[in-house]
Amino acid sequence: xxxxxxxxxxxxxxxxxxxxxxxxxxxxxxxxxxxxxxxxxxxxxxxxxxxxxxxxxxxxxxxxxxxxxxxxxxxxxxxxxxxxxxxxxxxxxxxxx
Length: 97
Prior knowledge:
The protein is an alpha+beta fold. The protein starts with a strand and ends with a helix. The model has no long low-confidence stretch (mean pLDDT about 90). A 4-stranded antiparallel beta sheet has the order 3-1-2-4. The chain has 3 helices and 4 strands; from the N terminus they run E-E-H-E-H-E-H.
């Protein structure tokens, strides 16, 4: 299964996978407006892949078959301050501070 991968001009680390190069007919208009002008990254043969870097291969294939596209969003950013505060609170409760 071949697919084309495009990155968003507006949203960092956001990608759309489509079955056919330059065919965005299956992608909702609202999503395309938010996504901006797609910039081709690569063409990939999913049949020869065992895994993808940032997406679940089986989920990508299923979405391409069912809806004609797959949207890959960036991973959530880690809130380091929140993590630090939680660690400090745990240490307080354990009497380490």
